[in-house]
Write a structure and sequence with these properties.
mainly beta; GAE_dom; 100 residues; 45% strand; two-stranded antiparallel sheet; Immunoglobulin-like
Length: 100
Amino acid sequence: INIKLIHQTGVHCVLHIARDSPRPDVIVSVLSVTNTNTSNAINNFHFQAAVPKNMRIKLQNPSASDLPVYNPILPAQAITQILIVSNPNKEPVRLNYKLS
């Protein structure tokens, strides 16, 4: 499952939710951020996320903090970050996030 979080001004932020997980009450997902803007780089990338109190979330460190401007000759670079959500009651997940 892919969920588009942001798709504006050349910044694309997609949450890829894994079909398989280590346990039935755990959701593993990968955040992928790409830059298709040819004039502005992404610097000091920081993603924050929160879930309701009956769940827990753990964010791994992002793969990088900066993305250069888009170069159509080179393969697109991406920042990736793993999110692990513990959902013991198996309720629908409400994810609040902030990207800066």
